[in-house]
Write a structure and sequence with these properties.
By secondary structure, this protein is mostly helical. It is built from 23 helices and two strands. A two-stranded antiparallel sheet has the order 1-2.
Length: 513
C-alpha cells in the first residue's frame, strides 16, 4: 500500500534530522537538473539519441526520487512530461501506462483500505487478537503477537497506516509495563528507557514493512515488480501465485524478526500483569459492531475471494481458469470491492452508505501517479535499449553470471537504495535494470526481478528509511543507535533469507527454471 513521502512524517523527527531533510530536499532540487544536463552533454556512443535523452531524464528523476524536493508522484509526472517535450516518445505512448490495469488494482485497494480504517475495523481486529488467551500476559508472546498483527494488517492496507494504528496500542502496553515495574520497585520507572519499549516499537515498524511483501497489494514495489515482469517478459504473476511463495517467506521473516528483537531487546519482565485489563478496556471502547464495519468486512472478503479464485481454479485444473482471468482480473476485482462500499448502506432511510466520495478522495493519488510514471520510464528504458546498456555495464562490473548470483546482488542493491529513498522509487529504479542485467547475462530474469522487488521494501536502518520507522522513532523509545543496530541486522539477515527463500520457493511455484 502507499507510503507517505518523507516530508509528511517530518514532525516525528528530531530537529537535527528535520534540518537534514530540508538540506536533502534543497540540494536535490538543483542537483537533479544539473545531473540531467551533465548526462546529456557526456558522449555516449553506445546509446541511440533517444536512449541518451532518456538517460539524462532518468538521472534527473532518480535524484529527485532520492531527495524528494517535490512529491514523488509529481516527479514521476515531470519525467513523463520531459519524455514528451524532448521527443523521446509521443504523449499517447508515454502516458498509456498511467491507465494500466494495475493502476486500478491499487485504486480499488486504496479505497477498500480507506473504508476499513474509517470504520475502525483495523483496531477491532488488532485488539481482538491481543485479547486471545494464547497471548495472555507473557511479554514474549505479546511481542510476537504484536508483530504478527502489524504484518497481517499491512498485507491489506498501507504499511504506514498499519504502523500508525498500532503505535498508540504499543505506547499503552509499554506504559502499563512501566507502571507495574514502578509498583514492584517502589520507585518511578521511565518508560522511554525500557528494552521492551524499544523492542515492541521496532516490532511494529519492521513488522508493518515485512507484512507488505506477502500480497501483491501489500506494498507498492510488489505491483511495480509484477507490472515490469508482465510488460517486459510476458509473464503474468497472479494474486494467488504471488502469495504461494511470498506468504511462507513473510512468515519466515517474521520469525526471524521476533527472534532478533527478543535477543536485542529482551523484556525486563517475563510477564506483564495487568496487560489483559488494558487490552480489554481498550476493546470495550470500540463498542458493538457497526453497520459500517460489517459492510467493510463484506466488501473486503468479496474482494479477497475474487482474488483467490484463479489460484483455486488452477489447482483443480479447471477449464474456466482463463475465461475467469479475462473477465475478472485483479484490478476489476478490487474495483468490485471498492464499489460495494458505495452501495452497502449504513442507514438506508437517510441514504447513508459505507463510504462517501469525500472520504474516498483521501486516498494517496500521488502514489498512483508514481506508479504510472515509473512504469512509463521502465517501458521506455526497454524500448530505447537503455536498460540493456545499463544491465551490460553492471554485468561487466559485477562479474555475476548465474541466475542466483544476480538475484543475490539484486536483493542487496535494492536494499541499499531503499535506505535512502522511497521503496516505490527504489523498485522503479532497480527492477528494470535487474531484468536487463539478467537478460544480458543470458539467464532467467524473473528471480532477479522478484529479488529486487522484495529488496526494495527492506530498508530498516534509519528513521527516514520508511515512514513506519519515522513513526516509532517519534516515540522517544528507540535511540538512533539501536535502530541502526537492529536495522543492519535485519537488512543483512533478512536479505539472505529472502534470497534463500526465493531459491527454494520460486521453482516450486513455476517462477524459476
Amino acid at each position: 500500500m502507499p507510503e507517505s513521502p518523507a516530508h509528511e512524517v517530518m514532525e516525528t523527527l528530531s530537529k537535527g534530522e528535520a534540518q537534514f531533510e530540508k538540506w536533502r530536499n534543497t540540494i536535490g532540487l538543483f542537483l537533479g537538473p544539473i545531473l540531467g544536463l551533465v548526462l546529456y552533454l557526456v558522449d555516449m556512443p553506445q546509446l541511440s539519441a533517444k536512449a541518451h535523452l532518456l538517460a539524462a531524464i532518468l538521472g534527473w528523476t532518480v535524484v529527485w526520487w532520492i531527495c524528494e524536493p517535490i512529491p514523488l508522484g509529481m516527479t514521476a509526472l515531470a519525467s513523463s512530461v520531459l519524455c514528451v517535450v524532448l521527443g523521446v516518445e509521443t504523449a499517447k505512448n508515454v502516458f498509456a501506462p498511467y491507465s494500466d490495469p494495475i493502476i486500478y488494482l491499487f485504486l480499488g485497494s486504496f479505497i477498500l483500505a480507506e473504508g476499513m480504517a474509517l470504520h475502525g475495523l483495523d483496531k477491532r481486529f488488532a485488539y481482538g487478537i491481543m485479547s486471545l488467551k494464547a497471548v495472555g500476559n507473557s511479554t514474549g508472546r505479546i511481542l510476537a503477537a504484536f508483530g504478527f498483527i502489524c504484518a497481517f494488517i499491512s498485507m491489506w492496507i498501507s504499511n504506514t497506516a498499519a504502523a500508525a494504528m498500532m503505535f498508540p496500542i504499543a505506547l499503552g502496553i509499554v506504559h502499563a509495563m512501566a507502571g507495574i515495574m514502578a509498583k514492584q520497585a517502589n520507585r518511578p520507572v521511565n518508560p522511554l528507557k525500557l528494552r521492551f519499549g524499544t523492542g515492541i516499537m521496532l516490532m511494529a515498524a519492521y513488522g508493518a514493512s515485512t507484512g507488505g511483501i506477502a500480497t501483491p497489494v501489500g506494498t507498492p514495489p510488489n505491483l511495480i515488480g509484477i507490472a515490469f515482469i508482465e510488460k517486459t517478459l510476458g509473464v503474468r504473476i497472479a494474486f494467488f501465485q504471488w502469495m504461494s511463495f511470498a506468504l511462507p517467506l513473510c512468515l519466515c521473516l517474521m520469525l526471524l524478526l521476533f527472534g532478533l528483537m527478543y535477543f536485542l531487546h529482551k523484556p525486563e519482565l517475563a510477564r506483564l500483569v495487568g496487560s489483559e485489563a488494558f487490552i480489554a478496556q481498550e476493546r470495550a471502547k470500540l463498542g458493538k459492531w457497526t453497520a459500517g464495519q460489517r459492510n467493510a468486512v463484506m466488501a473486503f472478503l468479496v474482494t479477497v475471494t475474487l482474488w483467490i479464485i484463479p489460484g483455486v481454479l488452477a489447482l483443480i485444473n479447471s477449464p474456466y481458469q482463463k475465461s475467469y482471468a479475462t473477465l475478472m482480473p485483479e484490478g476489476v476485482a478490487a474495483l468490485v470491492g471498492a464499489l460495494l462500499l458505495f452501495l452497502l448502506p449504513t442507514h438506508w432511510k437517510r441514504r447513508e452508505f459505507t463510504l462517501t466520495w469525500q472520504q474516498a478522495t483521501r486516498i494517496d493519488g500521488g502514489t498512483l501517479l508514481l506508479f504510472g510514471g515509473g512504469i512509463a520510464l521502465g517501458t521506455l528504458m526497454f524500448e530505447t535499449k537503455l536498460a540493456n546498456a545499463i544491465g551490460q555495464t553492471l554485468l561487466a562490473w559485477s562479474g555475476a553470471s548465474t541466475t542466483w548470483g544476480i538475484t543475490l546482488g539484486a536483493v542487496f542493491i535494492a536494499i541499499l537504495v531503499s535506505e535512502t529513498s522511497s521503496n516505490t522509487a527504489s523498485a522503479n529504479m532497480v527492477v528494470p535494470v535487474m531484468i536487463a542485467l539478467a537478460q544480458a547475462a543470458g539467464v532467467d530474469p524473473i528471480p532477479p526481478a522478484i529479488g529486487a522487488t522484495l529488496g526494495a521494501s527492506w530498508g530498516f536502518m534509519l528513521p527516514v528509511s520508511t515512514p513506519p520507522n519515522a513513526i516509532v522513532y517519534g516515540s522517544g523509545m528507540v535511540p538512533i543507535t539501536k535502530m541502526i543496530r537492529a536495522g543492519i541486522c535485519f537488512d543483512v539477515l533478512g536479505g539472505l533469507v529472502i534470497w534463500a527463500g526465493l531459491y527454494v520457493l520460486l521453482p516450486l511455484v513455476g517462477l524459476a527454471k
